[in-house]
Amino acid sequence: MAPASAPEPEKSTSTPKPVVRRKPRSATAPGIALAYEVAMAKLADQHEYVGRLNTRLGGVVAAIVAVAAAMFPSVHDGTVRVVVGWLILSALVEAARASLVSFWNDAPDPRAITKYAGDEPEYMKEVALPDILAAFDYNQPRLTPKGRYLNFAIIFLAAAITLIVLAKTAGG
Fold it and tell me: Over the stretch 117-155, which tens digit does the pLDDT of each residue have?
């Protein structure tokens, strides 16, 4: 008895259909690459600025904790303690307000842009440019309040430290 062999695969009589590729689309404006690069640079600047603000925010919160823990208890005058406490609390509130400004847009969406992978790079930039500009416009008005809240926290903290130093030098 001969071993069973695998059946012969069916032979296809039809030829495979040729893949029709469309011609890659080109950008409609000659300066689109420059516009894209400028917009991306500005969006990157925004994100870098947010990073710097968040770093400063961390330093301010650490300083608030340090002042509250180390310097505040050394003040013995009741009125000065109340004012310093109010200043430290105000600094903490402003730092919290700065940290709440935290939603930032980024563009282009990498998943969306892959749909255009068969097109020329300048066309892809043209497609992505409106999203980049929308992200820039969304982020820009949020930068000012974040920086302002952080600056107020620093002012309140500096006032508290100044008052503590003045009270200590005056003997209180």
Answer: 888 889 999 999 999 999 999 999 999 999 999 999 999
In a domain, 25, yes or no: no
134 Cβ partners below 8 Å, 6+ apart?
A: 105, 107
The predicted-structure confidence for 75-94, as pLDDT tens digits, reads as follows: 888 888 899 999 999 999 99
Q: Which of 65, 47, 169 is nearest to 105 (CA)?
A: 47
Could you list the residue range(s) of the whole structural domain that residue 89 is in? 32-169
Q: CA–CA separation, 164 vs 85, rounded Å?
A: 10
What does R_g of the chain's alpha carbons equal in angstroms? 31
Position 15 in a domain: no
In a domain, 10, yes or no: no
Burial (CB < 10 A; 0-12, 13-18, 19+), residue 15, is: exposed
Spatial contact of 64 and 156, defined as CB atoms under 8 Å apart? no
SS (H, E, C) 59-95: HHHHHHHHHHHHHHHHCCCHHHHHHHHHHHHHHHHHH
Number of domains making up the chain: 1
Would you tell me how many other CB atoms lie within 10 Å of the CB of residue 23?
Answer: 8
Q: How confident is the model at residue 47 (pLDDT cuts 50, 70, 90)?
A: very high
Is the whole-model pTM more than 0.85? no
